Amino acid sequence: MVLRWYVAFAGAMVASYLLWPYELRQWPFLLVTLATLPAVGAGLRRSPRGERSPWWLLLAALTLFNAGNFWWIWLVTVRGRETGDGSGASLLFTVADVVVLAGALVVVVKRGRGDAGGVIDSVITAVALSGVLWDFVLLPALTSDGVSTGGQIGAFVNVIVLTGALGALVRVSSVGAGRVAAVRLLAAGVGLTLIGNVAGTLAVDASGLRADWTNMVFLAAYMALGCAALHPSVAVVTRPGPAPDDRLSGTRLTFLGVMLAIGPLIGGGRVLLDEPADGVLLAVSSAALIPLVMVRIGRLSRARRTAEEALHRLATSDALTGLPNRAAWIEHVTAELAARPAGLTVLFCDLDGFKAVNDRLGHAAGDELLVGVAARLRGCVREDDLIGRFGGDEFVIVCRGADAVDVISDRIRAMVAEPFPAGNEPALIGVSVGVAHARAGDSTDDVVARADTAMYEAKRAKTIGALSLAVA
Questions:
Q1: What is the pLDDT of residues 404-416, one digit of tens each?
Q2: d(CA 280, CA 256)
Q3: pTM of the model as a whole
Q4: Which residue intervals define the domain GGDEF in the entry (predicted)?
Q5: pLDDT of 365-402, one tens digit each?
Q6: What is the DSSP letter of 26?
Q7: Measured between alpha carbons, how far is 146 from 79 in angstroms, rounded to an integer?
Q8: Which of 252, 361, 396, 418 can bridge 423 by disulfide, Cβ–Cβ 3.0-4.6 Å?
Q9: What is the rounded CA–CA span in Å between residue 43 and residue 234?
């Protein structure tokens, strides 16, 4: 209800702005800008604690904007100046723009943390397109108005920062389930601010005064920011958004390459046409885009490394227990035999009573039992030993040392004396262990086969809740 009343009031002021007598137009302007303050204050109170920083920043920016507006109006109406440009009011507007952008960036960082690659791509695209806007639209206007190089640099930095923030906001507000109305309204506010700045640069009369209709664009920007704060979705603005697929396809890479080439192409084209090279565009856009490209490449490198590590884990680890799988364990033992066969011992472990638990309680309970056994077996081996899962209910251990078998078997004996969780009830199992010591000239298959044979011999004396052991 409050949002509807705000839209009706602010919309009426914006729509009727030019209908007011020129000397009274400061009143609808101030009514809209001042009304945004309580709107943002309401949004701040409705945001979760700890997530209010964007709205605090926006409230601070709007306070600066309103202070600048009052200063401007005082200079024009009381001091009789034609414009407040170049005064302290202009400085307040500049600082306020920076604070608004800081608030927008907080939203982008929090909401777009799962889509950093897409956000960076959007910023690169927006900054590149701002170069086109600058070189073909804004620079000619500023040059014809006699704006100094310093003024041109300030204007371009303003445009490039606004477009970059707008690109990031558009991205985080338009991806899948991340479409939040309040974020879209924030993007609209930043976009209208950009349009107002562009219009203010172009719509200048012969005396250097900005056309008064451009104030309607800025008022619409205020209105969009107020609506963002009052919208019910304000509470989720800073929640992390979705994490879409970040694969850099050929089409996407080509597009980004074109965006990166726009600045140099424009600069080179001007030289070929015997026009002065736009140093502002080349210097500032390069300074903005190169760090973004470096961050993007770094993220892709980390993503590739993470994917390779994940693939390696999948190839070498048992999916259920996380232990080294059969292939990884055999590779390790083969390397150990090649380096130093003397003193190497293999323990082949098979669970007794597992099939009965699996058949009676189901596969889910059987999997839970295997996970529990794997966890306890990890505690039975020493730091330099390696345990792996061969498959089913078979586990293998490779170790070294004269007392290794005694130490490990004692730990396994204590392990199986306690029941394991399986489904909704405890399960008691036994373990049959076959032991084989490596001999000169043994292959991995040789020592594992002897341990397997010894394990079957141990099974003849298997006892649930106990350890049965045989040595090959």
A1: 999 999 999 999 9
A2: 22
A3: 0.64
A4: 342-472
A5: 999 999 999 999 999 999 889 999 998 899 999 999 88
A6: H
A7: 26
A8: 361
A9: 6
